[in-house]
Design goal:
Number of domains: 1
Number of helices: 12
Number of strands: 0
Oligomer: single chain
CATH architecture: Up-down Bundle
Distance between the termini: 64 Å
Structural class: mainly alpha
Shape: globular
CATH class: Mainly Alpha
């Protein structure tokens, strides 16, 4: 996807040639399947159907996170081109701006996902949202065509796009192996639904705020994911890590200190509220 955006250097968006080239490249994807000697779909044994409502009951954190992540990604990718076009960037520069979002996600998905295998995935997702919001706040001080903006978008994509992998992995932690296929299809549906609504939510930021509306839309949409994860962490408590320190990977150790700080802050607030509720219940019983 990142390489596809960079090819905008050679095409004019006002002509059909660019769209025709994209259609040709997409059609080439079926060639490996068509020439394969074993193109039959493998049979899936012990497959269990899982509806969207059942998935939300089993893993509300995973379903809600994927929906909101789709909302955020749809807003970012949908408005990035419009934002750059309004600021007068060239076609090639716009291609780079969109490409670095994807390339950043490709670069950081593996280390962040590896860290979520050792530390509570919800906390890793929360830290990623905080990073995206902080980087977007810095982007408010930079012009759109600046090289620093390109680097910031690379980092924003790097911390934002792994959120889908984190939500999917968290869902797989809670469903049975027989339900994983059905759960994956439902997650794709939720992500697509969010991505479809995302541009509609992000567009008013550009209309009302103007040039800085793109950065504010990123902050606001990721704040929704952040608030949802905070709510779920406080609603369902789990140990920050179940592994001994010697077994924690390098990526997990890199996130350990900020994850510990966030975990203490969120859980302390949740414990205070639970203590207040217990005191109220005791007073009512008396």
């Amino acid at each position: 996807m990142g390489h596809g955006a960079i090819t905008c250097f050679n095409f004019d968006a006002r002509n059909i040639s660019g769209f025709a080239f994209a259609a040709i490249v997409a059609s080439l994807a079926v060639i490996p399947i068509s020439i394969s000697e074993q193109a039959a779909t493998p049979e899936i044994e012990n497959h269990l159907h899982l509806s969207l409502r059942e998935l939300a009951k089993i893993v509300p954190t995973g379903a809600g996170t994927i929906l909101l992540v789709g909302l955020a990604h749809g807003g970012v990718l949908g408005m990035a081109v419009i934002h750059a076009t309004r600021d007068g960037l060239s076609i090639g520069r716009i291609g780079i701006l969109v490409a670095v979002l994807q390339l950043g996600g490709m670069a950081l998905t593996w280390p962040i996902s590896a860290a979520s295998d050792d530390i509570d995935r919800r906390i890793i997702g929360l830290l990623c949202c905080l990073a995206v919001m902080g980087l977007s706040a810095v982007m408010l001080t930079q012009p759109t065509g600046n090289n620093w903006t390109i680097l910031l978008l690379f980092a924003i994509g790097g911390f934002s796009f792994p959120l889908y992998a984190i939500g999917g992995a968290y869902t797989n932690d809670w469903v049975s192996p027989e339900q994983m296929g059905a759960a994956a299809s439902q997650l794709v549906t939720l992500y697509g639904l969010g991505a479809m609504i995302g541009p509609l939510v992000a567009a008013p930021f550009l209309d009302i705020i103007g040039t800085q509306g793109f950065a504010w839309s990123i902050i606001s949409l990721h704040a929704l994911v952040l608030l949802f994860l905070i709510y779920r962490i406080r609603a369902w408590h789990a140990p920050m890590t179940t592994k001994h320190w010697d077994d924690v990977s390098f990526h997990g150790r890199a996130f350990f200190i900020p994850a510990t700080i966030v975990s203490l802050g969120v859980n302390r607030r949740g414990q205070s509220e639970r203590q207040r509720r217990q005191i109220v219940e005791q007073q009512q019983q008396q």
